[in-house]
Inverse folding.
C-alpha cells in the first residue's frame, strides 16, 4: 500500500511528503490561503497511514464501518508559503489510545517550519460515535510508535 505518487517516505520515524504550491492554492497576493494548510496536513496524515498499511477504504468497509474524525487541532501559523514554493509535510503519530490517535505535523520550506499543528483524531462509527481503533490498525500504529522510541 506504500506505492503511489504521494506515498512519501519516513526519516527517523517522521513521514514526509512533498507539496508544491500552485496558483490555485493562493489568494490574490500569491500567499497560500490559510485553510489550504488543513488540506496539506490531511494529505500528510492519510499518506502516513497508507504507508503503515492502514487504509481509509478498508476501515470504512465491512460489518463495522469506521472513519477518522478530527476532535481537536492546535495550529501555529509561523510564516507564509507562496506560489511556486516546494514544501514538505512532516507527520509524526505520537500516541494511540482506545479510540484516539494523536499527531504532530509541520509544513516546512527548506527545513524551516512554516506551520505546525498538534491534533487528536477519533475513530468513529458510521453514525459518529467513538469506537476502538481496530486491531490491525492499532498494531501497525503501536509498532510504528515503538520504532520511534527505540
Amino acid at each position: 500500500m506504500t506505492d503511489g505518487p504521494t506515498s512519501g517516505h519516513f526519516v527517523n520515524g517522521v513521514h514526509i511528503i512533498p507539496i508544491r504550491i500552485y496558483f490555485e492554492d493562493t489568494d490574490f497576493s500569491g500567499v497560500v490561503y490559510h485553510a489550504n494548510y488543513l488540506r496539506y496536513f490531511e494529505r500528510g496524515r492519510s499518506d502516513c497511514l497508507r504507508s503503515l498499511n492502514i487504509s481509509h477504504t478498508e476501515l470504512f468497509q465491512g460489518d463495522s464501518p469506521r472513519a477518522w474524525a478530527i476532535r481537536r487541532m492546535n495550529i501555529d501559523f509561523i510564516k507564509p508559503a507562496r506560489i511556486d514554493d516546494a514544501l514538505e509535510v512532516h507527520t509524526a503519530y505520537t500516541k494511540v489510545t482506545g479510540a484516539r490517535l494523536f499527531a504532530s505535523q509541520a509544513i516546512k520550506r527548506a527545513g524551516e517550519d512554516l506551520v505546525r499543528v498538534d491534533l487528536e483524531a477519533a475513530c468513529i462509527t458510521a453514525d459518529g460515535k467513538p469506537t476502538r481503533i481496530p486491531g490491525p490498525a492499532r498494531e501497525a500504529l503501536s509498532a510504528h510508535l515503538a520504532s520511534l522510541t527505540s
Summary: Residues 9-149 form a domain with the Thiol Ester Dehydrase; Chain A fold (CATH 3.10.129.10). The longest strand covers residues 112-125. The chain has one domain: 9-149.
